[in-house]
Each structure stands twice: as C-alpha cells, then as structure tokens.
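Purpose: get a first structural picture of the assembly so the mutagenesis plan has something to point at.
Setup: two entries, given in the order below. No constraints added.
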Amino acid sequence: MSSHREAPAISKDPVADNTDTYAFVSPDDPNTVTIIANYLPLEGPFGGPNFFEFGDDVLYSIYIDNNGDGKPEVTYRFRFTTNVLNPNTFLYNTGRITSIDSSSWNRQQSYSVTRVVGGGAATTLATGLACPPCNIGPASTPNYARLASQAIHSIAGGRTVFAGQRLEGFYVDLGAIFDLGDLRPFEKLHIFGMANSPGVNATKKFGVHSIALKVPKTDLTAGGGNPTDPNSPGSVVGIWAAASRQKSLMRDAGGVTVESGGFVQVSRLGNPLFNEVIVPMGQKDNWNSLTPQTDKNFLANVQHPELASLLPVLYPGVFPNLAKLSAARADLVAILLTGIPSGLIPGFQNFTGNTKADMLRLNMAIAPTTSNPNPLGVVGGDLAGFPNGRRVFDDVVTIELRAIAGLTYPLIDPSYKPDGAASAVTDGLRQGDTSYLSSFPYLGTPSSGYATAPLGKVA
Amino acid sequence: MKEMTRAGFVKSSAAAVVGASALGAIATGTAEADEHAGSEPVVAYVRNPSKGEIAVMSGEREVVLRDRRLAARLARQVR
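Result (structure tokens, whole complex):
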C-alpha cells in the first residue's frame, strides 16, 4: 500500500504507522497549503468497543524542508491526551454523542499543536483541541458529518487543523497486487494468468486517522514570502510526516507500562510507495528511522527498482523495451529524490537541488486545478497533481506503476520508446471508488461500524 | 541526547540528578533514601557493557553516561 504496514516493525504498531501523506495548494483557499498525515491503517469501522484513536505516547510530526537540504526547517508537532470520563464501564459511549464535548463520549481525546522553526524553541499554537469520536452508528453518532465538523479548529496564525477519523482516500487493489503483482485488468497477460476482471478497491469503507493542517503558504517558505513564480526555486518545499516513540518501554506488573527517554522515529512517509516498493525488506525498518537527508543511501534502489525488473517477468512479452532498459533510472530519481528540474516538462519544476531526499515536493506557485482535475497528475497533464505534492484523489498507484514501467524515462532519454503497456498499466481503480470532501479536511466522512458490512468475496 | 563523562555527568547536569543518584546507589551498594531521587521511574540502558555506555532515561529526559566499571557491575547482576 502507499505506506500501510509497509515495514516489518511498524506493521506491528498501527497507532504510529504513517500510511499516507498529502500536500497540495488548497483548491478552495489558494493562499494556503493543506498537509494531511494519516496513521492507523485499515481501520475496520466496526472495531469496537475500543475504537481507534491516536496514541498519547506517540509524537506525530509534519516536516517542511524549504532549502533543499533534506532536513526540516519548519516542524509541526502534535501530541494527544485521552480522558476517560468513566473507567467503570466498558462502553466507548454511554449514550448518544451529539457534540464533540458530549459527556456521553467516554473516551475523549484532545491534542496540542506546536511549531518549531530550525533549531529554535517550540511555539505552542494551540492546546486542548478536541478530536471527534469514531463513527459508530446512528444510535451513537447520528449526523456524523456535522459532529466531525465541530472538530475543525481555527488556530493562531490563520491556520486550520483537524485530527480524527476519516474515510480512507487511498485506493488500491491490494488483493491482486500482492498476489505476485497481478493487475486484474491485465490478468490474462500475467504469467499465472486468468480471465481479465475489474479492479477491486481493497481499502473501500476502511477508516484511517488523519492529522490535517491548513497553513498560509507564508508559513512554509524560507523567507516568509508568498510564492507566485512557478520557475522560482523558492516556490518549492519538501514535505514529509513521521511518528516517533520514546526510546524505552518497560512492561511492569499490573498492566503498567513506563515509557521514557528521548523520541526515536519509527515511521516516516514522503512519496507514496517509496518504502513499500523501493526499499528492500531488510532495510525498511532502518529507513523508517532515518531523515530524508540520508536517502542517498537508497539511490541504487531508485535507479534500479526491483519492480521494473519484475514486470517483464510477470507479464512475459508485454514489456520488451523495459526488459532491455539497463540504465540508471534518472527519471525516477528526479520524481522521487530531487524533484523535476526546469526544462523537462513545459511550465513545471519542483526541483530542490542535488540532495537525494524522499519528500513530497510541492511547487506552491502552481495554481490548483479546480475544474476536472486529472488524478494522473503531471503525467496526465495536470501540473497541480502528484508528483507536484499529492492530492487526496491522485491515483498514485497507476502513476508510479507507469513511471516504473518506463513511461517517464523519455524525459531523460528521448530516444527511449516506452512499451505500449507502460501508458496503459493500472490496477483498474479510479477516484470514484471512494469519496472526498470539497473543502477542508478534504478526506471523506468515515463509514460507520453499523453501516459497514464485512468484506465479501470477489465475484 | 547529551554525551558526557561520568564525572561531568555528576557535576554538571541538573537534569541527570535522578539518574546519577540511582546509578550511584547501585554502584556503591547503598540503598539510602535520597531526597533528589524523586518518584518518577528511571531506566538505565547498557547497550554494550564492554564499552561502558549507559543511557539513563526518565520522562523525556535522557543522558548518556560512560563508565566501564559501572556498566560491567550492572551486567554482572544478570549474568
């Protein structure tokens, strides 16, 4: 998945598992940028009585690199506190929850937001911000959309924040892809092929916990200016998110745990699928502990991605040109590690320099596409989409599949002719397989436990 | 994370008082109450006893002490 359960260690720690990171110029508020960091993969909406929540013991962070060094110049930190009103009941809610401060919600969660610039002291932007409860069902959380909207908070500096459950926005056919790279629309061509069939959105109806932050563009730039020139290096920022835990955990008698020590990063995410698909299994946990400035150590994995060599094997005769492409994939290095320099795509650049660092790179001077945005982003001719940052509905699976299949290599070597399949390959899903909001926090209203049926069998 | 010698650690780090006191008690074999010990748990992590590196943690505070003798003494308790 984008980064759900993508590494052995973090797959055992879902509360800290950063599953997706999004960053885009807010389409309905274009002087701002919205950044969303998701955690807690594959929340079954009926997962009670201890429904999903952020970890009080996890430090959640969003990082901004505005000088291309792969290190954060601006950091937003989020810390959560859970308040149990009545510890003598097993109930998540003791009655109907009609407002986020309802005393019927027995396990209330709130959070603080701090901002750090460079190595300076942290500035507290807000404390005691209420999260919404999870969407349980019509008896417990009626009119959930209205209830959750109460958890959208305006805070200092023209910033807006939301932290709580959302509908998963990332769509992917996990069941097929992890079955030896099967893509159902092209199943007949697979080495173990069957009849072609439509894609299945494996994340449909699942929830996720989102930290959504909308800030003025001036919050992110090096000089505090408002970027207006798409060609200016100063218009581009690198963005990633992470989660950290304290170094030591002691499990004592009586169910008591004691955590202590400094915070150690256990999860991070810039570009979707980087750790998932590019980094080999033996390095994934290590990668999660690192900052992007060290990603030059993974350059060879980007230059020669394993998936590019697998596609011609899994789909015999379908990718003959890709099979012969042995050169280092400078196109993928640009997309994932440095940004795309000027001159390769008319009107576009998101280059941050030669430091190899896995970050989303957002050119904030490129206006959002408000009419019929193309979920294929830049490769689909829509310069406001991935890999120019990442919007909630961008089809990053198809984009990255096609890029790895060779579709973007002519940016570097115009004499290379991509295989016909490189511009057609997909897992067969589209943005309509889930739903979104047109305004902050943009990810859709989560499905309730009551209204969600367990997974069925593919027809 | 700070790094320092044991002497510097004991002399200069106010934040390390809790950890130093606890380790001192172990090192000397005494178990006297110390008004500076506090009640917050303290964790000492001896990553590699032969190198004498001891991380002392309490709350979000963490200091690194280098003391081969103390590390070896701690290790002997569990071997």
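The beta strands of chain B are 2-5, 43-48, 53-58, 61-66.
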